[in-house]
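One record is given unchanged without comment:
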Amino acid sequence: MKKLTTTASLALAAFGGLASGSAMAQNAGDWVVGTGWFHLSPQDSSKPLTVTSPVHSVLAGSGASVSNSDTLGMNIAYFVDSHWAVEGVLGVPPKFKLHGTGTLARVGELGQARQWSPTVLAKYYFNEGNDAFRPFVGLGATYVWYSDVKLTSNLQGALASQFHVRPSSVNTTAKLDSAFAPVLNAGVAYQFDKHWGVSFSVSYIPLKTKAKLTTTSITGLPVARSESSLKLNPIVTYLAATYRF
């Protein structure tokens, strides 16, 4: 009887271990949602500001740099099987500030804009579905566009001086080109129990845009057009709390 009792206890313990493992398993049909904090760090470079109209000229030595930014993010993933998942990622559009460099350094802040970049990723999770700790890699794409593009009065004045007009007689507006870009992603996920977990990832986005500036008189007549190409190439880190259902 004692032997049977011991055997039964071992069997129950083994079953309990299996149940505990499968409770944390990520299987086909599972959904995982997460929310957390993005940190975006542009690895930027730029070309000199170029006047394209009425006369082509280059503001030699001019450049710009883009500030880091933080924002709240959200992701939702669907597991095709225990290893493969498709994930969508969104965030509150972060605000970036543009600062002059080179001959534009004296101007200081040039302007600011908000970046929208919804992303879709295909991700592969290593280890088995019932493992708590799972590294992953991902590959996907994002579509990036910008809103609330504003130029500072300092830049407005510098452009007016470049065009030999009074600052109060002209106004300059800017537009940033939209673009598709690939996303390279890697990270780790840890599952605490059946529902709750945490994940951390690092993404690299080879991204560039062109800033197009239009200067008009106060009556609306065109005065000049200028542009500058920017490489942003941000490294994006994301720490999130996750919930599986």
Remarks:
- Helices lie at 2-23, 153-162.
- The chain has two helices and 17 strands.
